[in-house]
């Protein structure tokens, strides 16, 4: 079942599909249908207690389209944004999946590991940040994986092809905080995208090796992984134009391990630049 077919069903039909999903996927418990602009149903991975969305299969145009570039130039004609790493735009297909409603949070970390997340600065429920290999260990322990970059952008866009998942304009600061704050324990009316996903701007790992663009001939960079959308990590913003990190097509690279670089004297020196980022859990959906 694809996204269009699911959305054409009435509430009874959607409930029937969710009952079938629960039967075919006994590690997941159905919690309820989407509501109030949230199009998709919520399940819970029983062992980890992580809430997830059922994302039906679908197709979309990946990358930074000419229409998005035109809208970008309306908003910030003074910024010389190089779109090459987000191109060529191309159509992609995505199979149905479960993906976590939030990036992994301290409460999820404790539920899975039995330990408190050690970073004290995350007292307000900010997402867990782990190195790439640590992320893989965590996900393996619950039978999950990272999203691919194709899956991540499909889920972020939430059925839209606009500059941001919330449209083509930058909201006023008081509303913007509801989209970009990553302090999920605060009393804020947080805003999700149309797929019901929150915290999409926290700078998340994807499973792909990073390549400089989407051309099939481009060789991925050694030791570099894709991470996406870091607008929340910079909030509150020091510069007004930092909304560029919330563009649905925006992508970055991050090292997954330490590597060597040549010094001036020709002697290699190990440079510790390995970084930690937030991440989401993904599971396959049996039978769909």
UniProtKB/TrEMBL annotation:
SUPFAM superfamilies: C-type lectin-like. It comes from the Bacteria. Pfam families: FGE-sulfatase. GO terms for molecular function: formylglycine-generating oxidase activity. It comes from Gimesia benthica. Residues 116-222 form the Sulfatase-modifying factor enzyme-like domain. This is SUMF1/EgtB/PvdO family nonheme iron enzyme.
């Amino acid at each position: 079942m694809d996204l269009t077919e699911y959305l054409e069903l009435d509430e009874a039909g959607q409930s029937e599909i969710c009952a079938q999903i629960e039967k075919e996927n006994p590690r997941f418990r159905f919690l309820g249908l989407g509501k109030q602009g949230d199009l998709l149903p919520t399940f819970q991975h029983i062992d980890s207690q992580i809430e997830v969305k059922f994302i039906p299969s679908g197709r979309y145009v990946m990358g930074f389209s000419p229409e998005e570039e035109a809208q970008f130039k309306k908003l910030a004609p003074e910024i010389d944004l190089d779109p090459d790493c987000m191109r060529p735009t191309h159509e992609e297909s995505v199979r149905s999946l479960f993906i976590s409603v939030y990036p992994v949070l301290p409460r999820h970390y404790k539920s899975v590991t039995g330990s408190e997340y050690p970073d004290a600065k995350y007292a307000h429920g900010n997402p867990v940040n782990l190195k790439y290999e640590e992320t893989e260990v965590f996900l393996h322990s619950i039978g999950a994986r990272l999203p691919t970059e194709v899956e991540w952008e499909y889920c972020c866009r939430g059925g839209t092809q606009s500059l941001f998942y919330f449209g083509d304009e930058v909201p006023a600061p008081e509303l913007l905080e509801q989209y970009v704050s990553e302090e999920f324990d605060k009393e804020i009316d947080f805003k999700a995208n149309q797929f019901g996903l929150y915290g999409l701007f926290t700078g998340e790992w994807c499973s792909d090796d990073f390549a400089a663009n989407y051309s099939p001939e481009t060789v991925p960079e050694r030791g570099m992984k894709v991470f996406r959308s870091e607008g929340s990590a910079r909030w509150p913003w020091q510069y007004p134009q930092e909304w560029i990190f919330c563009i649905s097509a925006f992508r970055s690279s991050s090292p997954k391990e330490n590597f060597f670089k040549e010094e001036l004297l020709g002697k290699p020196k190990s440079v510790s630049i390995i970084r930690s980022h937030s991440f989401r859990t993904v599971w396959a959906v049996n039978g769909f």
